[in-house]
Amino acid sequence: MPASSAPDVATVVLQHARRGLVLQSWLRLVLLAFMVLTVVAVPPERYAPTCALVVAGYGLSVLAVMVWIRTGAPSAVRMAWLAQFVDLAVLAVLTLLTGLATPQSWTSDVLEAGFLLIPVMAATQLRLRVCTAVVVPTVLVYLAAGIVTRVANEEPWSSLLLRTLVLAGVGLGCVGLSRIQRSRVRTIGSLVRDRTHLLAELTDLEQRERRFLSEQLHDGALQYVLAARQDLDEARETGDQAAFTRVEHALAESSQLLRSTVAELHPAVLDRAGLPAALRELARNAGARGGFAVDLDVRNWPDDVRTPADALLYRTARELLSNVTKHAAARSVTVALAHVGSRARLTVTDDGAGIPDGAVQRSAQLGHIGLTSHTLRVEAVGGTLRLLPGPVAGTEVFVDVPWPEA
């Protein structure tokens, strides 16, 4: 899928919020059905028509809210939670009306069970504050309605407080569930953002590799070949031995540049001679291009060991040295590779300009995620990649991955 068509974080959050509202609408229909069945099956002895009228008005409001939500308007996602106060008010009115007017009936006792649905409806929200803003008034209104109707129903305080405690527990659980849902959506959004960046990087990878090859061949080997051709024409005409010497030098340099380019694209030396030899070749080429001295320390790495982490460490080192070449303006670079216990560690230190705070994040937001993609690859195998200021100047990058079986 093209990166331009990948959903962003805001889109993911909005999609989940709308799904929560749809679920809330169905729960509201359940609450409406509960009220209708209660008034019909357990009718109060007084004010039955009034109760029916209240339930009918509530039904119209439920339909209106459902239509509003189905429009998908952003205002519905932001403000539809206010409809839960209508749910709460209708339940409170029916409970008080039936509890005070006809205390000898069971209608109010049955209606009080409907309060349990409101915290569940609030849990469908992706906003912790919204869920809390609904749950707390629900518990308080439930307690207040119980206190008002307690004398009429001859209910002891212990019973009322225990019922309120149960509702408070359900509400607390719903608040926690809402928080967990929000955390999951944030995690999904982060994964979507990383996936979008990786897709953009993969889409651009072939073009960048071709540009890299073109620059390497045009600015390096091709220039030597053209110079050798001119010197060869001159040698044919004059027979000058110095011209043949220049031809030989140009061909030798072009061969070396071609070997270096091929080695960086597919380091066969990594399989033949191991990671230290491959890093030595990589560091030499990077130093030649960037004009800095490279000190390679591989004393704590066994030469005769090949591990599945070799390719990852090599690619990461290539990315780090490439960044030093392009951006650091360094005079010296130190590359250290070590096997310490159960970990493989790579350190690249330069004395260049350093990396300003937030530069990596800003670069990733602009679509340049070379370092970010390598960080994700390192973390995917259980490792870490950390950027720190250098001991004196520049940047020090630590790469630490588990030591796999050889």
Walk me through what this model shows.
This protein is 70% helix and 10% strand. The protein is an alpha+beta fold and 406 residues long. It folds into three domains: 3-195, no CATH class; 204-257; 272-402, Histidine kinase-like ATPase, C-terminal domain (Heat Shock Protein 90, 2-Layer Sandwich). Strand 2 and strand 3 (343-350) form a beta hairpin. Helix 7 packs antiparallel against helix 8 (157-238). The protein is elongated and about 125 Å long.
Label this structure with key terms.
disordered N terminus, 14 helices, alpha+beta, 406 residues, single chain, Heat Shock Protein 90
What sort of overall outline do the alpha carbons produce when their principal axes are compared? elongated
What's the gyration radius in Å? 36 Å
What is the CA-CA span between the terminal residues?
Answer: 37 Å
Number of strands: 5
- The average pLDDT value, as a whole number, equals 80
Which blocks of ≥5 consecutive residues have pLDDT under 50?
A: 1-7
Order of helices and strands: HHHHHHHHHHHEHEEHHEE
Number of helices: 14
Largest sheet: 5 strands, mixed
Order the strands across the largest sheet as they lie in space. 1-2-3-5-4
State the helical fraction: 55-70%
Structural class: alpha+beta
Number of domains: 3
Strand content: 5-15%
